[in-house]
């Protein structure tokens, strides 16, 4: 049911822009529907006990969700995709591969929800987490011991846009036989392909760029290894944190425009980053496209472009001034989340990263004056003018 079939393998040779539209997809066999139908059903008729057409219960299998999971696998160059009710549910499934006494080495600059899940939930079950800056790979190796079972990487990181060398971490993980997972939410498969760089698992908050329209909450995991996939499918079914068919349909639709949306996100992100970097009131802009950005050369080598996410601080690192700028923005909506077609602004210290203690936040650069922007696909002149009026 979940394996990529011989017929599906033709999609592996397509270019990315074609995969977003056709990858892993087939016309509906009943009536030839070009788009996968929304199978809004919880259960399926059986002719005799156990005699069914591949579907028994929609927590376990649903045709619309399975079509989406095949699309995930296709655009990530994976063999198996899994769709979850949220990005956090997808991460939760990964950590459930572990057992008490196991240890995880994680990026120290990571989404606050991931940090909260690790420290407030799974540490209570006897799993130990180490948070370390990973721009320097040696920082990881010093923490590895016989209990280390998972390396968790975000790249680019949230919200400091740090870049971590996926290929170098994969070499280290294979050397010590450690599972290696990458949260690639900021990059999307359009910009980077962690599985091709040696990761075992790639995770996405589909809520963000892959869905792309701020109307769905969903998570995804994609892997190449069959045994690992079967373990994750078991957890997905047993724990039940799956997405519904309506959301699956919306994300299938969103994937079809991922490549064109990401092109504009990248164009606009570059223009906004360059504008802010030249503004007299701005202290620092965090965007991996700058040659001065730490690990810029790694970003160039493992990413197609530099994305639409950036963060910045004002001169003097004034908290009140940062809040005033955010409140004065008009096109950039102040809201949680990112990656939609509309531009969003956020204050990580009080919003997305509030669950991380202040002392820990500031160690990784998440100071109270930091502003994060998710640059949308509006006209760039309008976005620049909005920033000008808010800053002035």
Tally of helical runs? 14
Overall helicity: 25-40%
Biggest β-sheet: strands ordered side by side in the sheet: 1-7-6-5-4-2-3
Estimate the global geometry from the Cα principal axes: globular
Structural class: alpha/beta
**Name given to the CATH architecture of the largest domain:** 3-Layer(aba) Sandwich
Radius of gyration: 21 Å
State mean pLDDT (0 to 100 scale): 94
Portion of residues in beta strands equals: 5-15%
How many domains make up the 3D coordinates?
A: 2
What string, H for helix and E for strand, traces the elements in order? HHEHEHEHEHEHEEHHHEHEHEEHEH
Distance between the termini: 58 Å
What's the total number of strands? 12
| CATH superfamily (homologous) name of the largest domain | Type I PLP-dependent aspartate aminotransferase-like (Major domain)
Unreliable spans are 1-6
Largest sheet: 7 strands, mixed
């Amino acid at each position: 049911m979940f394996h990529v079939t011989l017929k599906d393998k033709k999609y592996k040779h397509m270019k990315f822009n074609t995969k977003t539209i056709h990858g892993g997809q087939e016309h509906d066999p009943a009536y030839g529907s070009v788009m996968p139908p929304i199978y809004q059903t919880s259960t399926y008729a059986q002719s005799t006990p156990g005699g069914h057409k591949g579907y028994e219960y929609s927590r376990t299998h649903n045709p619309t969700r399975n079509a989406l999971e095949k699309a995930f696998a296709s655009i990530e160059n994976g063999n198996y995709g899994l769709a979850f009710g949220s990005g956090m549910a997808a991460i939760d499934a990964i950590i459930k591969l572990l057992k008490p006494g196991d240890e995880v080495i994680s990026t120290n600059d990571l989404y606050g929800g991931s940090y909260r899940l690790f420290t407030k939930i799974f540490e209570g079950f006897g799993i130990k987490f180490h948070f370390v800056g990973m721009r320097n790979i040696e920082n990881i190796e010093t923490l590895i011991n016989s209990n280390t079972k998972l390396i968790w990487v975000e790249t680019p990181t949230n919200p400091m846009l740090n870049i971590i060398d996926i290929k170098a971490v994969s070499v280290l993980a294979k050397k010590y036989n450690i599972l290696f997972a990458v949260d690639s939410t900021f990059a999307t498969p359009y910009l980077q392909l962690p599985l091709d760089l040696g990761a075992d698992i790639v995770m996405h908050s589909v809520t963000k760029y892959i869905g792309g329209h701020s109307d769905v909450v969903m998570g995804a995991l994609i892997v190449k290894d069959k045994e690992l996939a079967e373990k994750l499918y078991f957890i997905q079914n047993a724990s039940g944190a799956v997405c519904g068919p309506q959301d699956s349909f919306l994300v299938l639709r969103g994937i079809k425009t991922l490549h064109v949306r990401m092109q504009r996100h990248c164009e606009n992100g570059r223009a906004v980053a360059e504008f802010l970097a030249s503004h007299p009131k701005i202290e620092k802009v965090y965007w991996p496209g700058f040659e001065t950005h730490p690990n810029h050369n790694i970003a160039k080598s493992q990413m197609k472009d530099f994305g639409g996410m950036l963060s910045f601080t004002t001169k003097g690192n004034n908290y009140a001034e940062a809040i005033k700028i955010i409140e004065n923005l008009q096109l950039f909506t102040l809201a949680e989340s990112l990656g939609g077609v509309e531009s969003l602004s956020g204050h990580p210290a009080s919003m997305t990263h509030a669950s991380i203690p202040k002392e820990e936040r500031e160690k990784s650069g998440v100071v109270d004056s930091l502003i994060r922007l998710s640059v949308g696909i509006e006209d760039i002149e309008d976005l620049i003018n909005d920033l000008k009026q808010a800053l002035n």
